[in-house]
Amino acid sequence: MSQPPFEYRTVDMTDEEFADEQAVYGGLTQALRRLGEVSLRTIVDHDTVIAATRQVEELTARLEAEMIPGNFGVVVTTSGHVRGYGNAVVGMRNPIAPPLKIVQDRVKGGARSEFFLNALYEGPPGKVHGGVLALVLDQIFGEAAAAGGTPGMTGTLTLRYRRPTALGACSAEAWVASAAGIKTIVKGWLKDADGEVTVEAEGLFILPRWAREQLAASGETPPQYE
Amino acid sequence: MSQPPFEYRTVDMTDEEFADEQAVYGGLTQALRRLGEVSLRTIVDHDTVIAATRQVEELTARLEAEMIPGNFGVVVTTSGHVRGYGNAVVGMRNPIAPPLKIVQDRVKGGARSEFFLNALYEGPPGKVHGGVLALVLDQIFGEAAAAGGTPGMTGTLTLRYRRPTALGACSAEAWVASAAGIKTIVKGWLKDADGEVTVEAEGLFILPRWAREQLAASGETPPQYE
After folding, report:
1. How confident is the model over B95-108, as pLDDT tens digits?
2. Are residues A51 and A74 in the same domain?
3. Is the pTM of this model over 0.90?
4. How far, in Å, CA of B163 to CA of B192, rounded?
């Protein structure tokens, strides 16, 4: 199994330009997240919905006049910021990301997050989609492994669903249970708004050879997303 | 562990009204999916982004003038259609859903889907987020269990990531490996555009007692989403 290394592009950008970008695009993305939720819950008349659709298409045409090709990727600025803006869980410019703010614990090797999952993350009626819970846990687990100093890609992930998770406030925590060589085992849980554990999980994270070589060559530590 | 049964609301709606709703809201949601992707990839100047943000906020205000409270849920029409519009993977009115069209095989007990994951579903640069792969597999696995006549909620889900999955076209398939009493084991895989298996998975689906009682009382079969 041979894989090309991930490409981390670098852009020339001052701290001020970075802050400006966060404010401008953060505003657009947050507005789109709210529009997405409202579009699911609205019951206005069909003519209003059709008119709104035309406006969305006009807006899209203006924004797509100049675009990067393909995906956003992970871009490092010359001032040292890591822009993983496209990430589906934490990406600042990704309207499908809740987004999670994940706090890494680099002393003990762990990560945790408190977040809110609204109507867009539904599976069974009134409950968070089980796959969405897997999605957020995979991100938190990966950041826990990285915080423990042993980053890796998900090798296996096992989720035990103890009970349905109500839409709304949630929290999750993960920690490095063991690390040996290129293999790191992470364990953790997810809780609902009542503080009940609804999901328990365990993951094996593996650092592929090409990634080890790349990290060794660059002397870099893995990214903490902004 | 006691859980309230899921609520399947019923609405009075003709086939014609249903088709109209699909066209009107399908159009809005599809336009929002495209706007979401473009918002991540655009490099127009900041003034244009700020003006777009204002417009998104104005649109939101018009649509939120009348809304259902909370989440969408699963709503059954009197003409027999099941509207799981809020589902995070397949929901017709959910802009974060790719959305997947899943084909159930009710003879053999399985489900499969071909779908496209764009820049919004990124994890590592150029690759699908591992948690997004878990999200789509959880939905397909649940539909496979239901197609096998033994529906259930995800009890455990184990994912083995064989290699990174490039953003783009993907396919997945799941089948009932065994079913005994209230427990159904589903197995399956996900392939990338080259037809390489990138994820293998296994899930245990369990039908909780309250759901068994509810199904028995209603004589209903589990929903196939539209």
Report:
1. 999 999 999 999 99
2. yes
3. yes
4. 10
Distance to chain A for B147, nearest Cα, Å? 17
3-class DSSP state of B180: strand
Instruction: Pick the closest to residue A46 from B66, B83, B94, B69 (CA basis).
Output: B66
Q: Do residue A123 and residue A208 come from a single domain?
A: yes
Size of interface A-B (CB pairs under 8 A): 318
Query: What ipTM was estimated for this complex?
Result: 0.92
Question: For the ranges A73-82, A124-133, B14-23, B117-126, which has the lowest average pLDDT?
Answer: A73-82
Query: Is B182 near chain A, with CB under 8 Å?
Result: no
Same domain? B92 vs B108: no
Report the residue from B60, B89, B161 with minimal CB separation from A153: B161
Hunting for tokens 């979401």 — which residue is that? Answer: B36
Q: Which residue, of B99, B123, B148, is where some domain finishes?
A: B99
Give residue B73's domain range. Answer: 1-99
Nearest CB neighbour to A96, from listed B50, B120, B161: B120
Instruction: Determine the Cα–Cα distance for residues B161 and B148; give it in Å rounded to an integer.
Output: 26
Is some CB atom of chain B closer than 8 A to the CB atom of A193? no
Per-residue exposure over B29-40, b if at least 16 CB sit within 10 Å of its own CB, e if not: bbbbbbbbbbbb
- Name the residue in chain B with its Cα closest to that of A20: B46
Q: Do B42 and A63 touch (CB under 8 A)?
A: yes
Give yes or no: residues A43 and A105 share one domain: no
Do B18 and B37 share a domain, yes or no? yes
Assess B57–A contact: CB distance below 8 Å, yes or no: yes
Q: What is the pLDDT of residue A11?
A: 86
What DSSP assignment string belongs to A173-200?
A: EEEEEEEETTEEEEEEEEE-TTS-EEEE
Q: Are residues A86 and A117 in the same domain?
A: no
